[in-house]
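Bug report (template v2)

What were you trying to do?
Predict the complex of my protein with acetyl coenzyme *A.

What happened?
Run completed; filing so the output is reviewed.

Input:
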Amino acid sequence: AIDIGALRKQTGMVTIDEGYVNTGAVQSSVTFLNGEEGVLRYRGYPIEDLAANCDFVEVAYLLIYGELPSEEELVKFRGKIRRHTMLHEDLKSFYDGFPRDAHPMAILSSVVSAMSTFYQDSLDPHDPEQVEVSIHRLLAKLPTIAAFSHKKSMGQPFIYPNNNASYCENFLQMMFSVPCEDYEVDKTFVEALNMLLIVHADHEQNCSTSTVRMVGSADSNIFASISAGICALWGPLHGGANEAVVNMLTQIQNDGGDVDKYVDMAKDKDNGFRLMGFGHRVYKNFDPRATLIKTSCDKLLEKLDIDDPLFEIAQKLEKVALEDEYFVKRKLYPNVDFYSGVIYRAMGIPVEMFTVLFAIGRLPGWIAHWREMQLSPTSRICRPRQVYQGSTKREFVPLDKR
Ligand code: ACO
């Protein structure tokens, strides 16, 4: 075991590790990842087993509390989440102020941040009961906040949550039903969404999770911490890549489908173009999430008899890139974001909502890490050091002399 006490006393030497490529910032028991062998396990359970056998709420419980729930624990947990699915009517009125074309990730982070103004009774990170109720509120309300942002963009009335439906079914109902028409959620979509949320649920110290931990390390409340995580996830190099992938595939299609041209472009460092959905900081073999998603994507399109040209372009692109020396040498494989957008498209989810779905999936992971940090007796405020490269001491020059 690492002697944290002894390490803490070691100050004075600063190591530079830009992008934290080799810096372990925490000790964690949430997720195990072996990038060389393409292994991902939540609390010791392979994601393949969880995706095949669990529902998302069950996996959320596992990540947050460390154990798979018993039937009784699961029923109780679901009940606690269902109690909080509605949004406060005043919180709902925030949507009137956002422009109709506002990006839903901006709405998501703003409304989650605003939750700390409505739920002042649960902001203390050191009060376990307050933390518990905040966790239930977040898990319950994020799908509602997300679906309302879509309805806002469509100019349609909000659809209130249905607490008799499952987590995924309820979300799809809030997204797609309209008051004057019958709507039945397609079970195939529910299954696909459940799998997607599970494989996105945690990924150890990624950019957004580290952000949640960083903000939380200052004892900031959980709503503020999660809101910051949402902002980090939005970036195209992180969760925003799923939106960027579909935009890229559409561009390739509109440009005549010349996949080789885009592979060549990605190899040219001067133009700044990268193949979105390729490469990962940790996976240097394959991304096990991408494998699950591709298989599901294949099945879903076949079952629904959808002939999506973007799926064909994606498959071509993968084949060309995986045989190309540039990508092979750098171990650049399709990542979790490469095929997820094709599934979302098949479900009728608009492209700007893709990263929002990632956020709904990642929420239990963020919560698990925030909670693990708060409960750890050794955690302390995150405060990286630097190696200063600026000017040495300079004589002050008054304004009239500059
Ligand atoms: N297309 C072309 N070249 C790439 C790509 C890509 N998608 N990704 C990495 N490279 C190249 C880099 O130019 C670099 O080449 P060099 O060694 O000749 O300089 C080498 O591969 C290593 O890349 P880095 O940027 O140093 O790797 P890093 O670990 O910092 O970045 C990242 C990882 C951000 C995922 C990167 O691969 C990337 O930008 N991918 C595209 C965006 C993407 O799909 N993001 C989603 C990641 S998964 C997630 O967060 C959910």
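What did the reviewer find?
The beta strands are 31-34, 39-42, 45-46. The radius of gyration is 22 Å.
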